[in-house]
Every structure is written in C-alpha cells, then in structure tokens.
C-alpha cells in the first residue's frame, strides 16, 4: 500500500515538474530544480526496471518509453501492468492458490502414465513437474464445435443442474443469448440451487446493471472481477480475468474460447461467421477446473468455499480415455507458465504441429521452437484469421510470417469468418485447448485456463475440425507474400513495435 501511494505521488510530482518546466513563469533556477527532480524519479524507475532482469530488448523498450515520453511514458509504464509482473500485486491470491494446489496434488495418487507414447511421455514428464495440477486418467472430454453446439449442450446441462452452477466469464453480454442464460440461472436459483457468477469488470461492461440486480434478487451471488473503479489506484485494471468456466454439480465442466454474446453464435452482421471451439469435461478433471473457479470466487467475494466443494462423479474404468491436465495461468500462478507449456508442447513434436490462434504474437522462444521444428522436417501449420478485430494484432501477427515462411512453416489465412479458437495439436496425439491466446497478454497479464490432452479420442475431433478449417483458408505463398507492398510492410513493422504489450 505504501509503495502504491509513493508511485501515485510520483505521478503528481512528475506532472507538476513538467508543468513548471514548460508552462510556468518561474525562474530558470526553479525550473532546473524541478528538472532534476523529474530526472531523479525517472532514473529511479529505470533502475527498478533494470533490477527485474527481464530480456534486454524488453527492458530497453521500456527505458526508451520512460525517457522519451515525458510523463506519458511513466504513466503508461505504471498502469500498463508492466511494473508488477513479478511484484506484490495479487501476492495474497498467489500464495493462497499455491497452498491449495499443493493440497490438491496430494489428494489422490498420481496415475500411471506408462500407456502414453514416447512423445506424450516427453511432454507429460515436463507437465507433471512444471504445474501444480495433476494429470488425470479418470476423465472424459468432448469437443464442442462453434457456438450453436456449445451453447445448446451448455444450456441442456444448466437446466438439468440439481445442486449448483458455478459460472465465470470474461465477456458476458445482456443480449439475446446472455438474457436466455440469465433466465436459466434465475430459474435454477429459485429452485434452491446455488448459483455463483463471476464476470470480468472490463470484458463484461455490456452486462447491464439491471440484469445483475435481477440475478441478485433471485438469489444468485454475482461479483465482478477487478472492478474498474478501484483499478486506477491499485493498478489492477490491466490484469483481466480471461477465463471461461462453467461447472455444474461437480460432474461436468465447460472451458474454451467462447464468451457469452450473440456474436459467438455468428449473429453479429458486422463480424459474420464466428469459428470457435469449446470443451466439455467430465470426471476427475472437473475437480481441478472447479478449484480454479473457487479460488477466483474466494478472491472476489471473500467467502470461504473451498472446503465445501464436492468430489466429482468418477468415470467408470471401462470409459477411461487417455489423460487430461487442466492448467491455470496468470498473475496468481508461476509467471509465464502457459508460454512454457506451449513451448514444451511444440518442442515435443516429432511429426506435426498445428496451431490456430486469433492473436498470434508469439514470443522469441516459441518462434524459435517453430522454426527449429520446421527445419527438422516437422510439419508446422499456423492458422490465423484473415481479418482480425484489431489493427495492431492483425499486423503484428503478419509481421512474423516472413521468418516462419522462410523455414517452411505453412501459414493459413482463415477466410470464412472470424477465427477465435485457441488450439494446438501435436503429432495427432497431443493437444491444447482453452482460453489462452498466443500473445503477451495471455502469457503475462491475463488470468487464463487451458486443458492439455494426452491421446484422448477428442483429439480426433480437433484434427477433423482443423482439416475442415484448412479448406476454408488460403495458404499464404512465400513468393506472393514477399511481393506485398511497402504500405503493408510499414503497417506490419509499426504494429510489431507493440508486440510486447499485445
């Protein structure tokens, strides 16, 4: 708290110093004193940044921003989330979450993974050591293709709930789809079923206060994650909860790329067809997904609910299907864990790597892994939307095509609509699906959750859908790409400058 107040005081001092230096009628001596004060604060910030031992290019970038952009640079640095990636922000949540995950690891005996193939064993060895969540062989997964299939199944499960519904979304809109789900939640709450609802304060700004009040009056407990009205002063507003979690009776769970809004059904004419993928979990993996929700719930509500959580309905022995691991990432977990998981998954490949991502702004480690894999002869495919919903993300993504194409990576531009799914498929028997994009926000700022699949039958569905998506995409030819005009190159180079904060 003291440190936060000091930093806010620094903003005021910098603004005062800048005004006196540039606009006041004070003497040159007074202006010099305030120039020195301004310089000392910037030097303190630069020194603090240097001590964090980030990558040299990233550190230099922020040093340039602090020095070259008076006041604005410091303000952006302070409130962009860069200052507290390794600091005390979310420290209490991180400590409590870690304690709970350690308990979770000791809940059941680690299953034998001897049935996994060699490449799966390589990744499983890393995954079991790197994360505090266990790998489950007592789970079942079902791939849900696009919004119609996802929300039809989700609403069916919601209506069948008998004990509780726990739901968490980044974007939840008060449109036709949102109101339909709200009515189901209200109906179940009036039946005496517990309904807990978390919505991200920034992503769900279009969720009306009237709908929130209506839910609460029906007995639904609803809380925003990181309210914006407090975010300016505690610098949390740039850290968003990007998770999409639904847990019903501890027996089924939903996670993936789809938020709640009519655009996710393809009903927004300004966007058109929406291509996305969700996953339904059953069995032991639901317990891990539920734990992630409950840890978030305790954080936003202050209630103690973890001890009351029920155990999931077990999957019968004859129904076992591969292995599943649910991994949470964000400021409340080990820094950069999702990026490390993506890297390890890609590095384990011996035959193929298929990636689909709406926001493809990979860090250097992942780009290197993709290039090395392609040069080794591994088939590497990257699929991105033809038209993105942001200028910077679209052209920053395209700026990486050149180095990938030179190494033999196949880059596909999805043309049927907006591609929003976040999928990685390796060797046809390993996969990742969840909420995390392949960009710096998902790696360092957002709260995310992904499911990693080891030889499950659901991977076959992911492969089939990816092949269908390939038919709706255009393969970018290296020669044609290299002939693009200088205007396109300029846009890409400019957008790439912001890759560190996208």
From TrEMBL:
EC number(s) from the headed UniProt entry: 2.7.8.-
Domain PLD phosphodiesterase: from-to ranges: 237-264, 415-442
Keyword Transmembrane attributed: yes
Membrane topology: Multi-pass membrane protein
A molecular-function term among this protein's GO annotations: cardiolipin synthase activity
Reactions mediated catalytically: 2 a 1,2-diacyl-sn-glycero-3-phospho-(1'-sn-glycerol) = a cardiolipin + glycerol
SUPFAM superfamilies from the UniProt entry: Phospholipase D/nuclease
SMART domains according to UniProt: PLDc
Pfam families: PLDc_2
Active site residues according to the UniProt entry: 242, 244, 249, 420, 422, 427
Gene Ontology cellular-component annotations: plasma membrane
Keywords in alphabetical order: Cell membrane, Lipid biosynthesis, Lipid metabolism, Membrane, Phospholipid biosynthesis, Phospholipid metabolism, Repeat, Transferase, Transmembrane, Transmembrane helix
GO biological process terms held by the UniProt record: cardiolipin biosynthetic process
EC class (word): transferase
NCBIfam families membership: bac_cardiolipin
UniProt family annotation: Belongs to the phospholipase D family. Cardiolipin synthase subfamily.
Protein name: Cardiolipin synthase
Species: Bacillus canaveralius
């Amino acid at each position: 708290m003291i440190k936060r107040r000091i930093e806010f005081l620094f903003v005021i001092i910098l603004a005062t110093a800048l005004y006196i230096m540039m606009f006041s009628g004070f003497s040159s001596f007074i202006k010099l004193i305030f120039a020195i004060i301004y310089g000392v604060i910037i030097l303190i910030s630069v020194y603090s940044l240097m001590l964090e031992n980030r990558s040299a290019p990233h550190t230099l970038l922020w040093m340039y921003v602090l020095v070259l952009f008076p006041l604005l640079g410091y303000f952006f640095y302070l409130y962009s989330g860069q200052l507290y990636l390794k600091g005390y922000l979310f420290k209490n949540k991180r400590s409590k979450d870690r304690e709970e995950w350690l308990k979770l690891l000791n809940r059941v005996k680690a299953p034998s993974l001897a049935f996994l193939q060699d490449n799966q064993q390589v990744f499983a060895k890393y995954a079991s050591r790197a994360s505090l969540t266990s790998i489950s062989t007592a789970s079942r997964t079902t791939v849900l293709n696009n919004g119609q299939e996802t929300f039809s199944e989700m609403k069916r499960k919601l209506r069948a709930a008998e004990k509780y519904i726990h739901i968490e979304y980044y974007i939840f809109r008060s449109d036709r789809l949102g109101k339909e789900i709200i009515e189901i939640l209200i109906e179940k709450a009036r039946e005496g079923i517990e309904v807990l609802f978390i919505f991200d304060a920034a992503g769900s700004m279009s969720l009306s206060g009237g709908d929130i009040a209506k839910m609460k009056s029906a007995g639904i407990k609803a809380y925003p994650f990181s309210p914006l009205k407090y975010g300016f002063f505690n610098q949390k507003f740039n850290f968003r909860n990007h998770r999409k979690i639904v847990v019903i009776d501890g027996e089924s769970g939903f996670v993936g790329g789809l938020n709640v809004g009519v655009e996710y059904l393809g009903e927004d004419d300004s966007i058109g067809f929406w291509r996305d993928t969700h996953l339904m979990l059953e069995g032991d993996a639901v317990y891990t997904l539920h734990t992630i929700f409950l840890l978030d719930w305790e954080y936003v509500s202050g209630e103690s609910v973890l001890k009351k959580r029920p155990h999931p309905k077990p999957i019968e022995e004859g129904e076992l299907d591969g292995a599943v691991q649910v991994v949470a990432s964000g400021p409340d977990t080990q820094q950069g864990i999702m990026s490390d998981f993506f890297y390890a998954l890609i590095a384990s490949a011996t035959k193929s790597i298929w990636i689909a991502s709406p926001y493809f702004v990979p860090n250097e480690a992942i780009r290197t892994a993709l290039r090395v894999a392609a040069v080794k002869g591994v088939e590497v495919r990257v699929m991105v939307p033809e038209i993105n919903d942001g200028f910077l993300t679209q052209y920053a993504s395209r700026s990486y095509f050149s180095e990938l194409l030179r190494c033999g990576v196949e880059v596909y531009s999805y043309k049927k609509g907006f591609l929003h799914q976040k999928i990685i498929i390796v060797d046809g028997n390993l996969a990742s699906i969840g909420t995390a994009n392949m960009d710096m926000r998902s790696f360092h700022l957002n709260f995310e959750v992904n499911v990693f699949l080891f030889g499950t039958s659901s991977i076959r569905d992911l492969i089939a859908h990816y092949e269908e998506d390939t038919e709706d995409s255009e393969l970018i030819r290296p020669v044609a790409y290299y002939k693009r005009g200088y205007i396109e190159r300029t846009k890409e180079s400019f957008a790439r400058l912001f890759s560190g904060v996208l």
